[in-house]
Design brief:
- By secondary structure, the chain is mostly helical.
- It has a domain at about 55-280.
- It is about 75% helix and about 5% strand.
- The protein is built from 15 helices and six strands.
- The chain has a two-stranded antiparallel ribbon.
- A hairpin with a 2-residue loop joins strand 2 (about 175) and strand 3.
- Keywords: Cell membrane, Membrane, Transmembrane, Transmembrane helix.
Length: about 375
Amino acid sequence: MSEKAVSENAVPEKAAAEKSNWLGRAGRAPRWVRALALLAVLLLLAALPLYLDAQMLKVGSWSMAIAVGAVGLTMLVGTAGQLSLAHAFFAAVGAYGYAYFAAPEDGLGWPPALAALAGIALAALAGLAFSPVAARVRGLYLGVASLGLVFVGQHLLKNLTPVTGGVNGRSVAPFDVFGFQLTGGTPPLEVLGVPFGAQERMWYLALFSLIVAIFLARGIIARRPGRALTLVRDNQAAASALGINVQHYKASAFVISSAFAGGAGVLTGLAYGYLTPQNFGLTLSISFLVMVLIGGLGSVGGAVVGAVIVTATPLLLESFASSTGLLAAGGSGGYDAATVSSILFGVLVVVLIILEPGGLARLGQRLWRVASRSS
């Protein structure tokens, strides 16, 4: 072959290589694009409290609080391949644990930061107590077994009145650090002329907690524990042959996921300010599972997006319904915000399972691949 022919063949190969470096491979955006996108999202989220009203800040705080639990569940279901319907139970343990540990009068009166860590640790211990079951069964059997925890939890929440407040629930002590309230308005604070009250501060607390949860989850998935869990999910016999302690990793995944759920419970309690047993029933467990299915099993970013969609949609629809009257009032038996949201989520899950089982995360990768080919 002549030097001219070799040179002509090298030109498109070089161009293809340069294009690959700019656009990434395997349907994923290159690292620099993801870094810039992450930075842009963080800056946007940090600036939003300067512009959003109190209601929208509440919606955002609740969504980010729930997203912490969804991140933990996507590691358990997606990465480790273990079905759990007990996420609401562990969230309740964290929420009520914090409320009792931090309460100055009808609790232990611990510092809020210590009480929050203790609530998360208590949820992890509850997961550890259930981990022998998680280590020995899998699939539908584990899902049914974990579902029992939700009913046990409901019974305990309604009957351990000195700790939980019973059916009527209990209030949640505000969160402060050295006297600076992160869920209240003391001391007064203004940023760029905007008063930073309880909702603005709660936004930043939830955002910071979600960022920590995301980095912890991605660190676990990207390193040896995550690779071991993936192998256990795909082939337990092969994992055992390679010297991986299958039962240990399955149990550990359940404990870690329980801790994330406990963190979500603490944040949810702080965001709501009051806890009742019905907040942590079967509906919440199913909602968590819907979040990770919509986002894409095993995808941390997808779990966050799924959590925001599932949490924010009924709240926004309720606000829309109250201002327009197009939807029925809650509890009227008609098509209220909760009913319409449930229908939408059901349709979305079915469509994604049929068309894109990888959820929104895989759909995003596919769209990026199409865009990179056409550019």
